């Protein structure tokens, strides 16, 4: 659950009930933490394959298809970048 979604959920729960489930802090504290979280950037990760002996100009279609499918899978599943570094 995204932090802003969680804060909205807790806020609406508190409006419907007189009982707070906070053991420490308050909704204001949670809101303050949520604003700080938004300022942080999510780290980016990338997978990089380096094949110095592999030639881009002589790449076989099956290899290119495999690399394309791998790239798509990593992007859609894990939001990861994917690079392949080869010889000219």
Layout: helices, strands, pairs:
Blueprint: H1 3-16, H2 27-39, E1 46-55, H3 61-78, E2 81-87
Describe the protein's architecture and organization.
The protein is α+β, with helices and mostly antiparallel strands and 88 residues long. It folds into two domains: 3-39; 46-87. The protein contains three helices and two strands, in the order H-H-E-H-E. It has helices spanning 3-16, 27-39, 61-78, and strands spanning 46-55, 81-87. Strands 1-2 form a two-stranded parallel ribbon.
Briefly summarize what is shown:
This protein is of the alpha+beta class and 88 residues long.
Summing up helix and strand content along with how strands pair, one would put the structural category as alpha+beta
The number of domains is 2
Mean pLDDT across the residues is: 83
Share in helix: 40-55%
Shape category: rod-shaped
Strand order of the largest sheet: 1-2
Radius of gyration: 23 Å
Main sheet characteristics: 2 strands, parallel
Offer a few descriptive terms.
88 residues; alpha+beta; 2 domains; two-stranded parallel ribbon; 3 helices; 51% helix; rod-shaped
């Amino acid at each position: 659950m995204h932090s802003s979604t969680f804060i909205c959920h807790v806020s609406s729960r508190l409006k419907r009930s007189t009982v707070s489930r906070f053991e420490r802090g308050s909704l204001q504290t949670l809101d303050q933490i949520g604003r700080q979280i938004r300022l942080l950037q999510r780290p980016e990760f990338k997978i990089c394959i380096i094949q110095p002996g592999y030639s881009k100009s002589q790449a076989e279609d099956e290899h290119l298809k495999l690399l394309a499918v791998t790239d798509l899978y990593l992007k859609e599943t894990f939001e990861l970048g994917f690079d392949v570094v080869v010889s000219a």
